[in-house]
């Protein structure tokens, strides 16, 4: 174990970066109600890589949207650090998402006319933030994009494009990165590259990462997996293996 490696147990005991309490989200659809979140309490700690799993419709996306301030819960609270993000005005939420949260989506979301480097730097430019060149160099090195920085996205493989998106999300050292099915569009080799990088970022850069995934192999890269069913957290596994995650998921789907 290297000096910079923190044992997973130590990471889960560090102070929480994100704290959600009593999260309820009810959708009204044509006269009936859907309880997408039925009272979720969950914490995410600094430097921890957490996967959120559960059967289809269990509330994973809704939970991530409420945690990230992309949607407002019907009731309950979310704190990012000391900031209660539930209750912030739209403009403050926009700034908070821009300055303190990183996002990685299944569909990369790169701008096609910008090079890899320009895509990585774009959010900092929009926010008029000075770039920590040392961190940029480090991230580029770790994601293995050094010789691809001048390429347009169309000239990169899917895995390389997602690594650009990951580097972009991490450049500003956001307090938390939310990844929504980040390997959903990748073949298994490229997916593994991206997942290794996310895992290493949590370990080496103390980056807090929360990932929604359907894939037990992807979840096995996390330090911890929380399982949702019918809008509630019903199970949790630390130091998961793909086999263990598959078995728990199967149990939830059968129940
Ligand atoms: N905008 C909406 N309006 C009405 N119902 C919604 C809305 N968004 C989600 N739901 C419902 O809330 C529940 C949870 O949905 P959510 O998308 O969070 O689940 P999920 O676990 O992410 O599903 P999947 O794995 O299929 O993506 C589902 O029953 C869904 O139909």
Automatic annotation (TrEMBL):
Pfam families: ABC_tran. SUPFAM superfamilies: P-loop containing nucleoside triphosphate hydrolases. SMART domains: AAA. It comes from the Bacteria. The keyword Transcription does not apply. The keyword Membrane does not apply. Residues 18-255 form the ABC transporter domain. Gene3D superfamilies: P-loop containing nucleotide triphosphate hydrolases. GO terms for molecular function: ATP binding. Keywords: ATP-binding, Nucleotide-binding, Transport. This is ABC transporter ATP-binding protein. It comes from Nocardiopsis coralli.
């Amino acid at each position: 174990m290297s000096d910079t490696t923190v044992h997973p147990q130590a990471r889960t005991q560090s102070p929480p970066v994100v704290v959600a309490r009593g999260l309820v989200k009810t959708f009204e659809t044509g006269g009936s109600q859907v309880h997408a979140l039925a009272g979720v309490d969950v914490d995410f700690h600094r430097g921890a890589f957490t996967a959120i799993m559960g059967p289809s419709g269990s509330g994973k996306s809704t939970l991530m949207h409420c945690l990230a301030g992309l949607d407002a819960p019907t009731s309950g609270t979310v704190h990012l650090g000391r900031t209660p993000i539930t209750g912030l005005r739209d403009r403050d939420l926009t700034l908070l998402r821009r300055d303190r949260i990183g996002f990685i989506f299944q569909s990369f979301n790169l701008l096609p006319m910008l090079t890899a480097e320009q895509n990585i730097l774009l959010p900092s430019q929009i926010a008029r933030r000075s770039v920590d060149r040392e961190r940029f160099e480090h991230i580029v090195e770790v994601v293995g994009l050094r010789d691809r920085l001048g390429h347009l996205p169309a000239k990169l493989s899917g895995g390389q494009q997602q690594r650009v998106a990951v580097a972009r999300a991490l450049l500003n050292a956001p307090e938390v990165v939310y990844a929504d099915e980040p390997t959903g569009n990748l073949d298994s080799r490229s997916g593994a590259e991206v997942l290794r990088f996310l895992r290493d970022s949590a370990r080496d850069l103390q980056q807090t990462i929360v990932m929604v995934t359907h894939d037990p192999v992807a979840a096995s890269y996390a330090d911890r997996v929380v399982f949702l069913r019918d809008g509630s957290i019903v199970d949790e596994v630390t130091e998961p293996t793909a086999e263990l995650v598959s078995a728990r998921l199967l149990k939830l789907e059968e129940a």
